[in-house]
Each structure stands twice: as structure tokens, then as C-alpha cells.
Amino acid sequence: MTAASSLPDSAIRIRGLTKTYAGSKKAPPKEALKGIDLDIPRGTMFGLLGPNGAGKSTLINILAGVVKKTSGEVSIWGRDIDTRPRDARAALGVVPQEIVADVFFTPRESLEVQAGFYGVPADERRSDALLAALGLSDKANAYVRALSGGMKRRLMVAKALVHAPPVLILDEPTAGVDVELRRQLWEYVRRLNAEGVTILLTTHYLEEAQELCDTIAIVNRGQVVACEPTPQLLRRLDTRNVVVSPETPMATPPVLEGFEVTPRSGGAFSVTYRKGRSSVEQVLAAVRAAGVTIADISTEDPDLEDVFLALTYGDDAQGDPTKD
Ligand SMILES: Nc1ncnc2c1ncn2[C@@H]1O[C@H](COP(=O)(O)OP(=O)(O)OP(=O)(O)O)[C@@H](O)[C@H]1O
């Protein structure tokens, strides 16, 4: 057991976490999280990646204390969210997906109110330092409704940091954000991380996660399908698609042993292969061997859906003797 004075190895520790949303007359109950185990090491920049509806927001809302879990254990900075909810929340700053603007306050007032909410004593408040760090000093006394969308978003980052939490969650922080703001935001987040703040970032974008995060967990349909150091995960995701248009359009694409085949519009189909394991040449040979005459081909890099397919496919294929 760790001594009370030492820092936890895991900034966030999750075991067997499930969440089922109650159903209604119109909708059946929804099992949004199906038993999540996750350790987010202290000091890391951790990416939580998944498509729409994967369960990312549910997970984050449970951490933030706004959604009640169905079962499982969660601790933040070594503090159990069931037995020490206030302490657990105090260790966490959350920048939500949606911009929530306090229209009646100036940015400085907004930070002061938030600091008051967390019980930060007046002499420990750092509103001006945060405004400066996020490039909002000259807007300190402006009305929030006069700020641009990007400024409001930066103000939300500042608000999440008023109580100097050791763990910061950024939920889809760059959705709808322009390139320049994205760059500034990442620069600041990297600086925070270098100062020791553990960062948990959720995103739809593999590119964003791979650029920023040292570890990436992929969630799909309420389950963690991968959790690895970024370089290791990227090696596993080394997939490409070959899109084949046959001479005669095919309503049902051929079955190609060792490859994932997906129908495309117009009687075409795509074949997903691992660059490290196969080549376009081998894909084409397999297509021809299946009796297909090729009219045209193109290649494309995978999107997130293909990544999930590749990951799940890889798992299914493990130990499969037919696979070379
Ligand atoms: N309050 C709710 N009641 C019922 N079902 C819900 C509720 N909130 C979320 N869900 C369902 O739970 C599943 C997970 O949703 P969640 O919002 O956690 O996913 P997500 O990965 O955050 O997606 P997004 O990227 O779109 O925010 C989805 O099928 C969603 O429809």
C-alpha cells in the first residue's frame, strides 16, 4: 500500500465499470459501458478514442460525478468516488464538450466564482495568472457574451484549472475549433503536462490522439478494445484498404481468406490488409484467385471504423491456423 504522503501510480483507476441507462416507454435500457478496466498512469497524456456513441462521455461524466455508475470501482488520485466523492472531484478539472458561458460575469469574475465554488482561499487564487496563460488578459473584464467562441473555450480551460487539479480531462476539446486555436490549446496542454498534470483527452480523431498522447485507449460499444503506448498501437493499426471495382459489379463481395472484405457502392468492395503482413500485390492475387476480373483499383488509408475492424479482426484471428 502507498503511504499517505506518496503520490498514486494511477491518476485514474477504473475496475469493472458498467453503466446501463434506464429505458423508457419508447426506448429499451441502454448498456453504455460494459465492464471497463482502465489505469491512467500519473503524469501521462492519455487519449480516449472512440466513435460516436462508444461511451466516452458516459465514462467522463461518471468521473466528473454527473452520471451515476451502475457498478464497478473508480478512484481519482487514489480517492474512491463512492467513499470520498468530494475529494475525488477536487482532484479533477473537466473541460466539457459544450461551451457553457456565464453570460453575466466577466472572465475574471467567472474564475473567481469557480474558485469560490471549490473553496480556494482568496490568497491562493490565480485567476489573473490563468487568464494570462490562456491569452485572455486583455479580456479579463469584458462581458463573456462579447468573447469569440475560441476565447470562451479557453476560458473554460481556465475554469477547469482554478483549483489546480492534478488531473485534467478535456472532452472533445477541438470539435469545431480553428487550426490556430487548436495549436495554442495543445501548446498549453503540453505545458501543463510537462508541469506534472495528468491529461485525459477524448477525441474522435486518431490523428489528434496520436499527435498528443503517449498512451491511447480505444473504446467501442462500451468496451476497451485496445490500450497501449501510442507507437505500439500505431504499429498494430498499420492497415490500408484496396478498393476494387470488378468488371461485373458484385452485389456480394468475394470471401478472401486472411482479409477483411467490405461491400462498397456500385458493386465494388474494399479489402483491408496490414501493410506489415501483406502487400497490394497479394490482395490483388487473392481477388483474381476468387475469379474476379478487376476493372479498377484505388488505395486509401483507414478511418476509425477500419481501425476498429482491424483491431477486432486481429483479436479474432489470433491463433487462427489458417492465417499466415
Ligand atoms: N441519458 C442517456 N439515456 C439513454 N442512453 C444514453 C444516455 N446518454 C448516452 N446514452 C447512450 O449511451 C451510449 C454511449 O453514449 P456516450 O454519449 O457515452 O458516447 P460517446 O462515445 O461519448 O459519443 P459522442 O462522441 O457522440 O459523445 C450511446 O448509445 C448513447 O445513445
UniProtKB/TrEMBL annotation:
Coiled coil: none annotated. This is ABC-2 type transport system ATP-binding protein. The keyword Ribonucleoprotein does not apply. GO terms for molecular function: ATP binding; ATP hydrolysis activity. Transmembrane segments: none annotated. Keywords: ATP-binding, Nucleotide-binding, Transport. The keyword Transcription regulation does not apply. Residues 12-246 form the ABC transporter domain. InterPro entries: AAA+_ATPase (IPR003593), ABC_transporter-like_ATP-bd (IPR003439), ABC_transporter-like_CS (IPR017871), ABC_transporter_ATP-binding (IPR050763), P-loop_NTPase (IPR027417). SUPFAM superfamilies: P-loop containing nucleoside triphosphate hydrolases (SSF52540). Pfam families: ABC_tran.
